[in-house]
Amino acid sequence: MRTRIKICGIGSAEEARLAVAAGADALGFVSEMPMGRGTLPDGKIRALAASVAVESVLLTARRTAAAIADHVRATRPSAVQIVAHIDPAESARLAVLLPDVKRLQAVHVEGPEAVDLVAGYAPHVDALVLDSGRPSTDPDALGGTGTTHDWTISAQCVAASPRPVYLAGGLDAHNVAAAIAAVRPYGVDLFSGVRSGPALDAAKLAAFVRAVAEADAARG
Q1: How far is Cα of residue 185 from the mean position of the Cα atoms in its chain?
Q2: DSSP state, residue 20
Q3: N or C, which end of the chain is more exposed by having fewer CB within 10 Å?
């Protein structure tokens, strides 16, 4: 099985071309967030999403099905990632409002309770993203932390999920092989691990993609 690669925080057409050429399967475009890192206005997200051949993912911090659906209609991505822990009932409503748009739900792995969150969201989404936000202690910490979390819990989430699961949080070329071996995710998702300052770094990106390929070959 080949581990899919999703690169978030894409900020320009040049970064999109660089990521796709390196082997990214999906590109994430970050909208307005409480933490404010790497964000783009909706008009630019719409233009970039329309310009790429791979999966385009809107990252939104909106929390109701109606607001998320409006955001998707304004930006027209092929997928949407909800970065906050919304009410599962809203997730179910969103499935009705956006049946033709792929829906990804972030689950922030703060402890064993993440496994229960997986069970609550899985019936209503197409995929899950295990991240390292800290919404229980800081409602604004919804990802992009650059830190890892407990991969043993992530592995439990993967085992419990009937949906594909992406692993995020502090990944880079140096630790992604260990992460894939420990968690066995469908895909990996990263932001800061392939950047030097705010810019996407071609060398770091190539090293990351190579490390993922080597990890896949090792696990067979």
Answers
A1: 12
A2: H
A3: C
Q: What is the pLDDT of residues 29-52, one digit of tens each?
A: 999 987 766 789 999 999 999 999
CATH number at 81 reads 3.20.20.70
Element housing 19 (H / E): helix 13-22
**Residue for token digits 């790497």?**
38
pLDDT at 36: 62
Instruction: Give CA–CA dist 165/100, Å, rounded.
Output: 19
The total number of structural domains in the chain stands at 1
What are 102's strand-pairing partners? 79
Domain span at residue 9? 4-219
Residue 128, both tokens: 């899950």
**CA 162 vs CA 64, 90, 122, 135, 165: distances in Å:** 24, 20, 7, 24, 9
Contact criterion met (CB below 8 Å) for 150 and 182: no
pLDDT tens figures, 69-120: 999 999 999 999 999 999 999 999 999 999 999 999 999 999 999 999 999 9
> What span, in angstroms and rounded, lies between the C-alpha atoms of 52 and 13?
9
Contact (CB, 8 A) for 70 and 17 = no
pLDDT tens track for 119-129: 999 999 999 99
